[in-house]
Design a protein that fits this description.
The complex is a heterodimer of chains A (114) and B (110). By secondary structure, chain A is mostly beta strands. Chain A is built from no helices and 11 strands. Chain A has strands spanning 5-7, 10-13, 19-24, 31-37, 44-50, 53-57, 65-68, 75-79, 88-95, 104-105, 109-113. Chain A is globular, with a radius of gyration of 13 Å. Chain B contains no helices and 11 strands. Chain B has strands at 6-7, 10-14, 19-24, 31-37, 43-50, 55-58, 61-66, 71-76, 85-92, 98-100, 104-109. In chain B, the strands form 2 sheets. In chain B, strands 2, 4, 5, 9, 10 and 11 form a 6-stranded mixed beta sheet that branches. A 5-stranded antiparallel beta sheet of chain B has the order 1-3-8-7-6, with no helix packed on it. In chain B, a hairpin with a 2-residue loop joins strand 6 and strand 7. Classes of the chains: A mainly beta (114), B mainly beta (110). At the A-B interface, strand 4, strand 5, strand 9 and strand 10 of A face strand 4, strand 5, strand 9 and strand 10 of B.
Amino acid sequence: EPEVTQTPSHQVTQMGQEVILRCVPISNHLYFYWYRQILGQKVEFLVSFYNNEISEKSEIFDDQFSVERPDGSNFTLKIRSTKLEDSAMYFCASTQGAMRDTQYFGPGTRLTVL
Amino acid sequence: SQQGEEDPQALSIQEGENATMNCSYKTSINNLQWYRQNSGRGLVHLILIRSNEREKHSGRLRVTLDTSKKSSSLLITASRAADTASYFCASTGGGNKLTFGTGTQLKVEL
């Protein structure tokens, strides 16, 4: 069964450094998402992406964050200058269609900012 | 309850028993999805119920949706130790984003 993959599984970085989290959505899916989950808290929406542009973003997704689909398969989340509070599990998700479809999640990248 | 909180926050049962988790939401929804998360791991999709559906089954899972009460429940029948995990409901409203609740931690003991 097709699945969403994410790399790396764990990223450790120093505060102020840039990180890029990578995702490969399911191949025939058109809508892509990033969510994050701070340890012990609920999963929070960051951004959705369709047709090579952001379709919706949350208050969390400020100027330090950006997303890109650099080729036909990868979907990336970049954090320009990481802060301690960016430490979280980051999940990528994708759907084939729009709001009425199942969102399939990747296994997550655990980001630790020191 | 979720979107929001979930009820209960934690549930401990014996293997073979049924587990029921409830979730409520505040705004109109297009669909509601249930996910499972094993400790520190990814989110596994369990079942999706659309706003015009009242009940849905998948294997040992039964989900109900009451849009008049803005609530949903997930029933796991004949639970197994492997069902031990956190369970989340998540809904989509006007857009595509999922809004998650705080989840129920289920522990199934042998």
